[in-house]
Amino acid sequence: MAWRVTADVLRFDEAIAWFRARLPITDDELDKLTASSRQRAWTIAGVAQLSVVQQVWDSMGKALERGTSFADWKKGALGPIVQAWGSPDSPRVETTFRNGVQSALNRGRYQQMTAPAVKRFRPFWMYDAILDSRTTPICRELDGIVLDQEDHFWDTHIPPLHHRCRAGVRSLRRAEAEKRGIRTRAPHVAAAHGFGLAPTQGEWKPSPAEYAPELWKQHQKNAARKPPAALKEGVHFAKLEQGDLKGPELEQVLLAARKARLVEFLARKPLSELGFARQLGNTSDLGQYWATSRKLGVRTGRRADNFGQEFAPGVMWSISKTASSRIDAIRRTFVHELGHHLHFTAGSDADKVVRNAFQDPNSKPLTRYGGTVHYEYFAESFAAWVFHRGDLRRHDPVGYRMVREVLALQGVEP
Predict the structure, then answer these.
(1) What's the pTM?
(2) Residue 20's domain spans which residues?
């Protein structure tokens, strides 16, 4: 899947965490750093005021967290900030946004793809460019290149490879990689100056001795920021059954509710019970939700064919089966079942919205499971809203609007 360059394509914690770990600095300070060390810094070319750099960095971080498009970011977040650049319509404004967002998305994806379980299951990577009239010679020549994930090519060719680069990297299973053709030698195509280094090639921890006091003070303030609260027993659910999930695994799954922006909603409308188990009774269901009792269950026992499938809008069975790992699949099922909770606690008005959308002749369920019945249509669309929002909006505008309407009825910020 090629990534479109807008902040709402993939809203995930790894991308946001990578961006928030940058140290906003001025051009003068950037010049003091080595090329690899610059990966831990963030600046705006031609802007000498630290306050402006900090404000723009803050607004872009919020855009990543909220899934804000470039047009809305420029219109609603910047205001007088862009006057430092001369005009809000300056090409530099869009370049700054697109470079920052694409860097965060690709580096967040890099973190996911280098997780041990994912590396074992999908050991090959493919450079995936968008081919159109705006594609640069760099990306056009690299598009479709498949190499072993351990190839040193990836040390210097993680997108963006140039300004406004729209490319991404996909992880592949061996069978798929062999079908596409695995290269044994990387092409000699260089990234533009200052682009392409993998996150592991630029690990750097700033030292207070190297920076002006005001810079270091701001860095400490940024580092001290706490993410929104996750779910807690007694607040968001009355009872928890952890099953065979280990502590860090459970935490990772529960954080999906924050990703879905349902933490405050669940405090208002908590679950009676949240349970994880290798098997849900005698059924083969991956998840279950009981509307009358507000009980939610997720199966943790996942075979290899329960995840890692190709993302193919309108063809794939479910959002959870396109997950990159077992835990990711559990997270996606959890969000799917939270979609049922969101739907059934909103009353008849929400159910009418869902039924009308499902019956709309223009609706195109993103997954085959979403096309089975109206309430699964909503749950699958909501899971897509959280994990593949850009694809949902492009493939099924009806489902996209449906999710927005139900979120509004529940008082959840879209």
Answers:
(1) 0.57
(2) 13-223
